[in-house]
Amino acid sequence: MSDAPEPILSLQGVIKRFGGLTAVDEVSFDVPKGQVFALIGPNGAGKTTLFNCITGMHVPTAGKVVFEGRDIAGSKPYVTAKLGIARTFQNIRLFEYLSALDNVKVGQHARMKAKLWDAILRTPFARREEREVTEKAREYLRFVGIERHADNYARNLAYGQQRRLEIARALATEPHLLLLDEPAAGFTPQEKVELMALVDKIIARGITVFLIEHDMKVVMEVSQSIVVLDHGEKIAEGPPAEVRNNPRVIEAYLGKSA
Amino acid sequence: MELYRENRRNPNAIAYAVMLIVGLTFPAVTQFVTGGNGDYLVSLAADAGVYVLLAIGLNVVVGFAGLLDLGYAAFFAIGSYTYGMLASQQLISSPIHQALHVPFWIALVIGTFVAAGMGALLGAPTLRLRGDYLAIVTLGFGEIVPRFFQNMKDWTSGVNGISALDVPTLPFWITGPWVNMQLGLEQNFRFATFNATAWYVLIVILIVASVLGVNNLYGSRLGRAWMAVREDETAAAAMGVNTVNTKLLAFAIGASFSGFAGAFYGAKLSLVSPDSFGFIVSITILSMVVLGGMGNIPGAMIGALLLYSVLYKFLPDAPNQASALATSLGLDWLNTASPDGWPGIAEFINRLKFIIFGLILVGIMLLRPQGLLPSRLRSQELKRGVHDEPVTTGGTA
Predict the structure, then answer these.
(1) Which of A12, A116, B162, B206 sits 20 to 30 Å CA-CA off B91?
(2) Are A102 and B387 within 8 A, CB to CB?
(3) Is the domain of A135 the same as that of A208?
């Protein structure tokens, strides 16, 4: 798979300024469909800001965010979620006092059709849909391997399980593109191996994975292409082997260890 | 591996069952115990029911969606005034010179929708606010709305309020020994003020319908969205929840309960006056919800019943009770005022009323910080620390 297929997401000259600070500076790249695509860079390089621009949490100061052929720059987060972009958060942001199952069911929100009156009167349609969503939510929990914790509060799950739950919740939105913000942060080597297996399973479902990750081993192993950001600018792009040997990347990012 | 399940009996189910049984038998038991003089108590219970409805509604806003509303009485006022204007002679003196006499049952629905609409309208400017800031703005609404009705003199008679409101009517009603009458059907029944049982039955029906509706909402797509917004608005939005609509619906649905509670209240009292909806009313309802168990429907109901009986039964009765107790203990001297400043036990207790009320509030919150009947959620939050539930390590499932 050396030739990139059509892009699912295309960033075109995206700029994000906060007052005088330019967090993302004219970044352009394409995320090919069906691949694992990685975004790396030192702390403060603007990676999460770029994610926020894609999901609509930030409105880019300039530039286009083209998702499946349409410019979504400035769309509200719930709209991008509906269109098929799901994400996890660098600092886990679960609904702490909802059960794991309910967390995943919230992910199905935009895919449900029950109206207000269905909810108040608990119509047969609402009941059927609720049953289906519960069943689906259990499947997603099973998919990430935490089904037996379905009834526990999200806050009571162990750290690694919380990260998995976030992925299950994101998958429940039935995305075409899944953004993972440092999914391996704080993981043991064993958990990292499991995470990489999970990413493979997600790709096998036809979902494109776009991740931010600090762990070079994970990045090099799991991703097909990498973009490197430094001080908000794109300094390199290409397959892992190429990026690893890029002098600018070594200087900016891998500096000491190289 | 087995799921770790709690096998305790569901306290909510028990609470509902007890409330339903007590609720259904209350008028009969009261009349029996008091020897047929229980009308006052039954009427008081019907008034308490209004606060139960209000607590159920506020619980949607504060408990489910996590939006701290300090001006909830505003919607109560809107419901009451809507009914007052639609079902009395009041509008003759208004610019439209035409009295409206909309039947209670239709006015109930109109009041509900008007309050819901106002809830959404007042909610809209607060959507960008969170926590304390939201609370301050809702506090402002709570002050403005009664003042607004007070100043619309042509429509509302200002400080005098609207009086002589229409009472609900029904084609027929069942009468029986519980109102000292023969068992039978009464044609063209009117809810007269003295017929406490009829009002009581009506409020119980309204409460039961409300509980069913809210309970359905709680387990629905919308209920989950409310709780997701309460827990983490950013994450909720990222999961496809339209947080603006979700919060507006919380305000609107929460307000709708005070809409029909207000219509009932106005019709029963046959009077709507601007000073029935002050800040203290908002705070009392909020205390009921917090004290009963925020986020839990039966908790909010029990909180409302408890606080209402303390405020309107226990405290008003306390001076006389104390005086009677002193007499029965042979401490008659306590009842007589003495020149050195002792006012007599009854007056002494009367002066202490609100200290006692405060102490009761503080006491309950110290003993049960999570509320009398908390949702599972709050009890976890306050009783247990983080991560101390036995959780098996994530295996390679």
Answers:
(1) B206
(2) no
(3) no
Confidence (pLDDT) at B2: 39
| Residue A199 sits in the same domain as residue A168 | no
pLDDT given for residue B390 in this prediction = 41
A10 lies in the same domain as A73: yes
DSSP code of A42? S
Q: Using an 8 Å Cβ cutoff, are B280 and B94 in contact?
A: no
CA distance B258 to B336: 45
Residue among B3, B56, B112, B221 with most chain A CBs within 10 A, to mutate:
B221
β-strand partners of B187: B172
Cβ within 8 Å of A, B 363-382: 377, 380-381
Chain A residues within 8 A of B231 when measuring between CB atoms: 94-98
DSSP 8-state class, residue A158: -
Determine the topology of domain B11-308 in CATH.
ABC transporter involved in vitamin B12 uptake, BtuC (1.10.3470)
A149 with B396: Cβ contact below 8 A: no
Residue A50 C-alpha, separation from nearest chain B C-alpha, in angstroms: 15
Across the interface, of A109, A161, A164, the residue whose CB is closest to B225 is A109
Facing B231 at nearest CB: one of A96, A160, A194: A96
User: Three-state SS for B173?
Assistant: strand
More confident residue, B393 or A6: A6
A with B: how many residue pairs have Cβ under 8 Å apart? 144
What pLDDT digit, counting tens, does each position of A83-134 carry? 999 999 999 999 999 999 999 999 999 999 988 999 999 999 999 999 999 9
Q: Which uninterrupted H or E stretch holds B226?
A: helix B221-231
Residue where a domain stops, chosen among A125, A143, A174: A174
Q: How far is B397 from chain A (nearest CA, A)?
A: 5
State yes or no: ipTM above 0.90.
yes
How many domains is chain A partitioned into structurally?
2
In a domain, A89, yes or no: no
pLDDT tens-digit series, residues A199-226: 999 999 999 999 999 888 899 999 999 9
Question: Residue B9: pLDDT above 70?
Answer: no
**Contact assignment for A158 to B5 by CB distance below 8 Å:** no
Interfacial B residues in 232-261 facing A (CB < 8 Å): 232, 234-243, 249
Are A2 and A40 in a shared domain?
Answer: yes
Same domain, A186 and A79: yes
A4 pLDDT higher than 80: no
pTM, entire model: 0.89
Share of chain B above pLDDT 70, in %: 91
Q: What is the pLDDT of residues B69-79, one digit of tens each?
A: 999 999 999 99
CATH number at residue A251: 3.40.50.300
Q: How far is A8 from chain B (nearest CA, A)?
A: 19
Give CA torsion, residues B233, B235, B239, B242, to 10 deg. Answer: 20
Question: Which of A219, A188, A229, A251 is closest to A23 using CA atoms?
Answer: A229
State the smallest CA–CA distance between residue A144 and chain B in angstroms: 8
Give residue A119's domain range.
Answer: 98-174
Nearest in space to A190 (alpha carbons), one of B392, B387, B393: B393
Considering the domain architecture, whether residues A6 and A74 belong to the same structural domain is answered as yes
pLDDT higher than 50, residue A75 = yes
Question: What residues in B contact A129, CB-CB < 8 Å?
Answer: 221
pLDDT in tens, A155-168: 999 999 999 999 99
Last residue of a domain, one of A156, A174, A192: A174
CB B235 within 8 A of CB A104: no
- Structural domain includes residue A92: no
β strands within chain A, DSSP E: 7-18, 21-32, 36-40, 62-67, 70-71, 85-87, 177-181, 208-212, 225-230, 233-238
Which residues in A lie closer than 8 A to residue B381 (C-beta atoms)? 97
Q: In this predicted structure, what is the pLDDT of residue B277?
A: 92
Which among B1, B217, B389 is the nearest to A120, CB-wise?
B217
Domain annotation covers residue A90: no
